[in-house]
Amino acid sequence: MLALISEFNTQNEWGITVKPEYGGHYYDLHRKTLAAIAFGSPPEMTFTYHSRVAEYAQADVIQPLDDYIADEKYGLTEEELQDYLPAFLAGDRYPAFDDERLSLSSSLGMEAMYYNVEMLNELGYENPPATWDEFKAMCMDATQDTDGDGMNDTFGYAVSPNGSTFAGWVWSRGGELVSKDGQSVMFQEQGLEALALLEDLIDSGYAYQAVVVDGDRLDFAQGKVLFIFDSLDGLRYYSVATEEGTIVEPEFKWSIAPFPHEAAKPIVGMYGPTLCVFETTPQTQLAGWLFIKWFTEPEQVARWAIAADHFPVRKSAIETETMQAYFVENPLYEKAFGFLEHARMQPAITGWQGIHDALRTAIVDVASGQMSPEEAIYEAVGQAEGILAE
What we know:
- By secondary structure, the protein is of the alpha+beta class.
- The protein has two domains: 2-105 and 272-345, 3-Layer(aba) Sandwich (D-Maltodextrin-Binding Protein, domain 2); 110-269 and 351-389, D-Maltodextrin-Binding Protein, domain 2, CATH 3.40.190.10.
- The protein is 45% helix and 15% strand.
- It is globular.
């Protein structure tokens, strides 16, 4: 980020100087930004999640970008707009604010299914599961006592509770998380189906909840489980998994796929930070937009996406020498680009982070046996409705 900002500062034709300030983790950055807004001195720009942008917009301090984008001199041409991946571009519109574009993303992450190719083939399967019924059947077959000691040594699925994974479960069953206007909860039916399957897998011994941080990644790298659901920024971690300082390299072939699905088409969930401009002065706001425009040009987004283990928002970024060279070194990253046609963005609404946490908690409650699927979904829906009503 510092290198890119330095390039912009030395190369831009308008004499604009961007002064970077590190705000800590996203939570800390958000807390500091809220405090600055409260004191009437917000930053000129910030790099944060869409739900946070919606919170700032609720305070009426965000400058919409639509007019800048449409500006004949400083905006984007129709050809440039067509170069943005549609799902990514749509994700920066905010339903609670007249669908205005309040931010623009440079790159986004993806949630996908990781699978052990060799284990899958040994079980007699050629391809990863396309449906949730196939997923369950493969989990059953993968759960085995390989050394004959009466205890299972391999399993179908190691669960790492995550709200983004829950979102993928809902979408893959043809459901929605919230209504289009962001006012109503919509995940009840499909969320209950997902949690019921989770309970079935765990009660039957085909799945288990990872109890340590990154435990699912480590168990996958050691060949203990057939499936993991994780973000694509985990690609590099599976090549070299670390436990107590010891490097463990997987000795098997593995790959990635979209979530199993009951919907007409597979789904992959996308999420990640975005850039927004605060209301300050016309000159400063324009300067902020010009930096965003430059930062989301193909070469810059290619470099940033690689650094962040994300995907660039521009189609032409794929053709850059930077990205093509990265494809050669990282074929699974290139494979994941084929999933982008199935991309879905998490809701750009105020309170989404709280709902995301409630969905994660629902997985924890069911996986640990503390709640039934019905109790967990009832609790999650109640929390989500309370958040949306605030």
